[in-house]
Request: fold
Amino acid sequence: HNPNKPAKPQQPPAQSITKTRHGAAHAREQTMPDKAWYLVHTKPQREETALAHLDRQGYEAFLPRARRSIRHAGRWRQKIDALFPRYLFLLLDTEEQDWRPIHSTVGISRLVRFGTWPARVPEELVEDLRQRADTDGIVTTEQPEQLEPGQKIRVTEGPLTGVEGIVAAKN
Reply:
């Protein structure tokens, strides 16, 4: 044991479930890559602060941003906000990096978890966002047809292809 090397978080083994023709399920362990994207929940309106502090600590993080028009005092102006308010993505190599400092990083509330384990984000999702982002992290999106609340929609491209939903509101 090397005392200078950060502690490695314990991870559950990845499993795939195989069912036999008789319906019995068998779990089979698979090896998981050590480097993956995770979702970080930030404190309210502290995404930029969290990003800067993670960077100072040597972590790679990505904060997708969006440009939007807001009306203030009767005038329209452009504002840049987090695409996903209170969330950013963190690339972590569990062999080389320690989770512990993340929990006390300024601007961070917690790592998003599924049960007791931090939630991994599909690499394709993050890479798609990064490819659509400019050097400031502003994600460009194509303007779809005008959507109205209650309208049914289906994602036709990207990692969420095939997902269906209903427009909840317009902002």
Summary: DSSP finds three helices and 13 strands in the chain.
